[in-house]
Amino acid sequence: MAEEPITSGGTTPRRIADDYVRELAELDPLIAVYLGVNPEDDRLPDLSPAGSARLAELGRRTLARLDEAERGGAVEDEAERRCARLLRERLTAELAVHDAGEDYRSLRNLGSPVHNVRECFTLMATGTEAEWRVVAGRLARVPLALEQYRQTLAEGIERGLLSGPRQVTTVVGQFGDWLEGEVPEEGAPRSGSSEGGGGRRAGWFGTFVQDAPESLRAELDGHAVAAAEALAALRDWLRDVYGPAAADTPDPVGRERYGRFVRYWTGADLDLDEAYAWAWSEFHDLRAQMEAEAEKVRPGVGPMAAMKWLESDGPAIEGSDAAREYLQGLMDQAIRDLQGTHFDLAEPITRVESRIAPPGSAAAPYYTQPSLDFSRPGRTWLPVLGEERFPVWDLVSTWYHEGVPGHHLQLAQWVYVADRLSTYQVTLGGVSANMEGWALYAERLMDELGYLTDPGHRLGYLNAQMMRALRVIVDIGMHVGLDFPADSPYRPGEPVAPDHAREFFGLYCGLSADFLDSELVRYLGLPGQAIGYKLGERAWLRGRAAARAAHEARGAEFDLKAWHMAALSQGSLGLDDLVAELSAL
Prior knowledge:
single chain, 585 residues, mainly alpha, 2 domains, two-stranded antiparallel ribbon, DUF885 domain-containing protein, DUF885
């Protein structure tokens, strides 16, 4: 494990890549928080157009350095070659998105600059007064960051580069959720809840600083109120100015923009028509499997009714604290069972935390990677959305995806081998389709290993697989402008328009209406991201099958544990490279 994985200087691709990480962490302090470096830095990134331009210029300078290194023969071995290929592909894809003006319309319900600002506070250390002072400094800068972001969106209005109206409506609602709650006036009694009148509106920021030391409380409360007021002003501007300007903007992005985003999210130029047709074959196969599994849950009623019964009357956990503990136990048990049999995990990787997501999050659970020194462990996050009852039928497979053996084993292993690769390859160079493909593969692995024999749990797993197949269908179909095929059970021959896509999704995926509404907005706001789960899993499965076949062809035994660890120790790869690299292990 690397003690100082971020290096400086030199002309090899790995050193150039890590110089890029170091310089990017200086330009974008949120990157430093994510990596767990520069702990005394209390800045926020410049979210104005000028800040975006500086990030792009750093990417161009890094590509120029890489060109020079390759001309000079610095790519001398396989490790350097793999790093150089990844760095060039990633920076080229990112610059293509930037040059198309996408920064000017970066308004969406998940992963926007404002979402990232809030999330960074959940990742910051708060164990000492000194650490809280860093929080105070960063919190004081929130109003400026939000104003810079507004300037960027306003420039987008001027350039005719706007996000779609569904994103505006959803984000305005999310910001309203973030603003709920007050900070009591000085001298008034405090409470762990956000109830009580007479306070100053501070919302989520006020809740976040409630556990701060008394010596900093007044300062932090003041910054929390100022941050909330700035957020309220941004929300009102989005509603009153940006929303009307964006009213006629189509939510789907069209084939040209979609192609750029697909390269960004998958590291590949995919054949979208082939992927769309393949997803339909997966849909029909999964539909048949779900019919069979539903018979074991509630005979004669079909998958949707069986899942509805599991949701309302099946086994459930009462209370968010109990849900968090249940999910923690699920991950701890998976580590105990898989360690030494299907994985060889270093001690830092065996630590993972289950957390409750902050209010106003998108509906989907998510995972955050450990810091580079493992002082902050990997964490899974459950959005509770105001609920206190949590059915378990779909949580089990989901936490195999988010936690163990899914995102946590891959991304924590990447951190552990950073010194063998480069910091870039195991953090910022991550390709979404690779990571989400592994996590979906992890769900399938647990099914293969017999962990999903409970009919409800297995129906939840199949429903998760169906959701990912439907994502490929509706994401490509909506954005590229395809039709439902002739063998579709829903509106054959008609266009995959957003409203029809949402209805189609709801007919064949047993998730709540609120979740599916959030998902549709997500797909429209992050075009190309959602297809990476199922297509990434396909790449992982093809790579495993090819590696097994190669071993058998030479009369060797295929060691799945060794393959897993070798595969997880490669660092990031785009789908253009993933199958070939996995096949050779």
